[in-house]
Fold:
Amino acid sequence: AFTAVSISVIVGTALTAFVYRTDLDYPRIMIAYFWVLAFVLIAMARVAHHQFRSALYRRRWGESKVLIVGAGEAGNLILDKIRGSPQLGYRPIGFLDDNCAGHIVQGLPVLGKVLDLGNAVHDYRVDEMIVALPEASHQDLLSVISHCEDGKVSIKVFPDVFQIMAAEVNIGDLNGLPLLTMRDVALRGWRLTLKRIVDLLISAIVLIFISPLLLLLAFFIKLDSRGPAIYCQERMGLDAVPFPCFKFRSMVKDAEAETGPIWAKAGDPRRTRIGAFLRKYSLDELPNFINVFLGHMSLVGPRPERPMFVEQFRQMVPRYMERHYEKAGITGWAQVNGLRGDSSIWERTKYDIYYIEHWSLWFDFKIMLLTLLKFLRDPNAI
Structure:
């Protein structure tokens, strides 16, 4: 959009001068005004178009009927995503699965077996089919797709874990020799310095403005239960180097003394009264801005995990340690897409790696803006 708007303004100015053949010398500031105005109007038009289309989809205008092939974990994940995103315009009508035909899964009927795909597409007038069989071989997938060759239906395939991790494959060349780029780390060189400057400036401004709130919350935490208001928990950051992550204490003192490190969960009985409030609105993470100011973290990046969990995940999830190629962040691409807390670590890793490979300053600002918008709409979503 940036390049397109810039070229359009320059070409438009040149054509205007050529067609009207005026001797008027356009001030440079006027061209800058045209550029800013064009950029703002195009952005507003895109937002308005997206909102209008989403509103129509929410009212079931122009929606697409979706059939999910596979009622396992992947199929359930896809159904959750569809139900949580009504603006996409999808209406799931059912599953097809060899193991539970005739059953009800998450309130959706399993309409038959995979072999019934052709009939299901015709009988239910399916617009789009999503194949959620990540364990299936290529031959099995071709067999599934062949069942609906006669129907005018869009087909999408949910990939397996390896395909997810290797999805960003770009074709390039080395002086005519074709090469496949399997990994492209975008954040390096001068971009690191630029990102650090943005982190430093924004974290300093935020800390100045929220300092009264930090003091007030610390006072209530001390008033509510014994123990420090702020505690340091070891997390893994850039290059898998541990750092002290500052958070408001939301649980009783020595909460893991008997159990050892365990994953926090919704309604955790170890929470204090004020801690439940802090965790509900993610206020316990406000001291993370201190970490950003000190250089331990960034405003945007993969959320940091504790060392013992990192050791578990690295053995389970391909390319998991690539999350540590960048600094950990207060918010991230995974979080604004609804993946936080006790969510799929495979899904979170996919989004984190996508962020690392597609980093740009505009991408960071987009994530920060989405985080703010999601918080204003639903504080529990962040």
User: Anything to note?
Assistant: The chain is about 45% helix and 15% strand. Residues 190-381 form one domain. The mean pLDDT is 80. The first strand starts at residue 64 and ends at 69.
